[in-house]
Automatic annotation (TrEMBL):
This is EAL domain-containing protein. Pfam families: EAL. PROSITE patterns: EAL. Residues 1-238 form the EAL domain. SUPFAM superfamilies: EAL domain-like (SSF141868). SMART domains: EAL (SM00052). InterPro entries: Cyclic-di-GMP_PDE-like (IPR050706), EAL_dom (IPR001633), EAL_sf (IPR035919). Signal peptide: none annotated. It comes from the Bacteria.
Length: 238
């Protein structure tokens, strides 16, 4: 297993919950998204914001990735299920990140089952630079996803330049999808767009059976949300 690049951070202050991702054409679980939790800070957003203010965001991001993979491996999921790992754009472009990720790819039994999920919670300052690093990441066998698509202004340009393996639609488009024709048209457009470009679309934030039914009717295949499974400790998800 890889080294933690900043040994001054303590592993005891963080842990993870894992939320299942399903193929709704077969109703089979394909993997999990990792969600950071902290014993000292109430919300992950607060934890990352504190790290950003302390100029430790890269350290927290890489520590979270390391610990999530270690937990996944220790619980017997490595090599079987996909693992979506959240990461900020500033971490992706950090000078040490590619060395870190190459070491992970070499040590993990099935690196193609690891997906780095780039968050739109942080603005992308240089899309060309990010796209170049995404290409390097994909060369290691690890896949790349763009999260919260539809939320940020740089979404379409980022997708075209970076060509991610997965995109995850922002939960705004799922909320009340069963009653909104406008949202249904947009979701159908994104489903067709991804099919044409050979990208996989994960639709997040599904909370009602009627929303799930509409997604399936529109042709969606991969989905995530409370109606399919809540985030939990891995020991409870086997």
């Amino acid at each position: 297993m890889v080294r933690i690049l900043d040994p001054t951070l303590t592993k005891s202050t963080i842990f993870h919950h894992f939320q299942p991702v399903y193929d709704i054409t077969s109703w089979k679980r394909i993997g999990f998204e990792v969600l950071l939790r902290s014993k000292e800070i109430k919300s992950p957003e607060e934890a990352f914001e504190t790290a950003r203010k302390d100029k430790k965001l890269y350290d927290l991001d890489t520590l979270s990735i390391y610990e999530a993979i270690a937990s996944f491996t220790a619980n017997g999921f490595a090599g079987k299920d996909m693992l979506f790992l959240n990461v900020f754009p500033s971490t992706i472009v950090h000078k040490n990140f590619m060395a870190f990720i190459r070491e992970i790819a070499l040590s993990y039994p099935e690196p193609h089952n690891l997906i780095l999920e780039i968050s739109e919670a942080e603005s992308i300052n240089n899309i060309k630079e990010l796209a170049g690093i995404v290409r390097q990441i994909k060369q290691t066998g690890i896949k790349v996803a763009f999260d919260d698509i539809g939320k940020g202004f740089s979404d379409i340009e980022s997708i075209i330049e970076s060509k991610p393996d997965y995109i995850k639609l922002d939960k705004y488009f799922t909320r009340d999808l069963d009653t909104s024709k406008e949202k249904q048209l947009f979701v159908e457009f994104i489903i067709n767009y991804c099919e044409r470009l050979d990208m996989k679309l994960v639709i997040e934030g599904i909370e009602k059976p009627t929303e799930l039914a509409i997604i399936k009717y529109l042709g969606g295949t991969l989905a995530q949300g409370y109606v399919l499974g809540y985030p939990d400790h891995l020991k409870n998800l086997k």
